[in-house]
């Protein structure tokens, strides 16, 4: 049985963004840094941070919200 998709709360949307190439950026409050997110073997994995690579060219878009 599939679990229903949860709606991303409005207050959390500011921490998840997508750039023009489709890379997902996640803000980690614990590290106070933005990281890129990718999927490896079905699990999310944080790749690099802005400190490593710098900001990509914009524009950035908020991640679509599922209902």
Walk me through the structure:
This is Transposase. The protein has 67 residues and is mainly beta. It has one domain (10-62). It is 12% helix and 37% strand. It has 2 helices and 5 strands, in the order αββββαβ. The protein has helices at 10-13, 50-53, and strands at 16-18, 24-28, 33-40, 43-49, 61-62. It has a 5-stranded antiparallel beta sheet with strand order 4-3-2-1-5. β2 and β3 form a beta hairpin. The radius of gyration is 13 Å and the shape is globular. It starts with 9 loop residues before the first helix and ends in a 5-residue tail after the last strand. The model has no long low-confidence stretch (mean pLDDT 66).
Order of helices and strands: HEEEEHE
**Rough outline:** globular
Query: Assembly state here?
Result: single chain
Straight-line distance between termini: 18 Å
Proportion of residues in helical segments: 10-25%
Mean pLDDT: 66
Number of helices: 2
Report the sheet-strand fraction: 35-45%
Structural class: mainly beta
Major pleated sheet? 5 strands, antiparallel
Low-confidence stretches: none
**Total domain modules:** 1
Describe the secondary structure blueprint for this structure:
Layout: H1 10-13, E1 16-18, E2 24-28, E3 33-40, E4 43-49, H2 50-53, E5 61-62
Describe this structure in a few short sentences:
This is Transposase. By secondary structure, this protein is mainly beta. Helices cover about 10% and strands about 35% of the residues.
Highlighted features:
2 helices; mainly beta; 5-stranded antiparallel β-sheet; 67 residues; 12% helix; globular
């Amino acid at each position: 049985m599939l679990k229903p998709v949860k709606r991303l709360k409005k207050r959390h949307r500011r921490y998840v963004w997508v750039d023009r190439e489709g890379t997902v950026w996640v803000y980690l409050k614990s590290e106070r840094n933005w990281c890129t997110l990718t999927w490896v073997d079905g699990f999310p994995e944080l790749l690099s941070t802005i400190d490593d690579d710098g900001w990509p060219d914009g524009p950035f878009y908020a991640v679509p919200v599922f209902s």
